[in-house]
Amino acid sequence: MMTTNTDSPHTAQTATTSTATASTITEPLEELEPKQDLSAPGVWNPLPGESPHSYSAFVHYLELGPGASLPRVAQALGRSLTSIQALSARHHWMDRATAYRQHVSHESSTPI
């Protein structure tokens, strides 16, 4: 149980701030960051012959952002690094991710 000194407004404010911060930290990551909008046509859409599982792995790579790495995808999906490297090479993840990020950057800089 937390007690606060009601004589000091600063103490009460600090207690309130701490509580708000704690609830923010415990929110799931998915709610804090929006999922990628891949609806616009482009090379980031599923390729002919790319299975849903392979495409899902690529989308996970995109969702990791510019700091994405194949080892992080492999770990997150519980797959071997070798299999993720093969998927990335076969389906050109680096080029597709670059194209998608350029598209998003262009869309966000276009005046409304």
Written description of the protein model:
There is one protein chain. The chain is built from six helices and no strands. The chain has 112 residues and is an all-alpha fold. The protein has two domains: 1-29; 34-109. The longest helix has 17 residues, at 9-25.
In DSSP terms (H or I, runs of 4 or more residues), the helix count works out at 6
Major pleated sheet: none
Kindly name the structural category.
Answer: mainly alpha
Rg computed from alpha carbons, rounded to a whole number of angstroms? 21 Å
Whole-number tally of structural domains: 2
Outline type: globular
How far apart, in Å, are the first and last alpha carbons? 51 Å
Mean pLDDT: 75
What is the N-to-C order of secondary-structure elements (H for helix, E for strand)? HHHHHH
Poorly predicted runs are: 1-34
- Proportion of residues in helical segments: 55-70%
Count of strand segments: 0
Subunit arrangement of the protein: single chain
- Please indicate the percent range of residues in DSSP E strands (runs of 2 or more): under 5%
